[in-house]
Design a protein that fits this description.
Number of domains: 1
Number of strands: 0
Order of helices and strands: HHH
Distance between the termini: 19 Å
């Protein structure tokens, strides 16, 4: 989101996910399930691994 200057609303429209879900993931209040990660990746046109930062990536 930050790299593309997208708002939560824009990501919601692109992915079909509720704004509350995206907000909860960003704030760390919830961890996304695999199907949510897939929806995000498809909507944002990125790989799932691009959605998280890990030394094991």
């Amino acid at each position: 989101m930050n790299e593309r200057n997208l708002t939560i609303r824009q990501v919601s429209v692109m992915t079909g996910l509720p704004r509350s879900t995206i907000s909860d993931i960003i704030s760390g209040r919830s961890d996304p399930r695999m199907n949510t990660l897939e929806q995000l990746a498809i909507g944002l046109k990125v790989k799932i691994t691009d959605l998280f930062d890990s030394p094991y990536k």
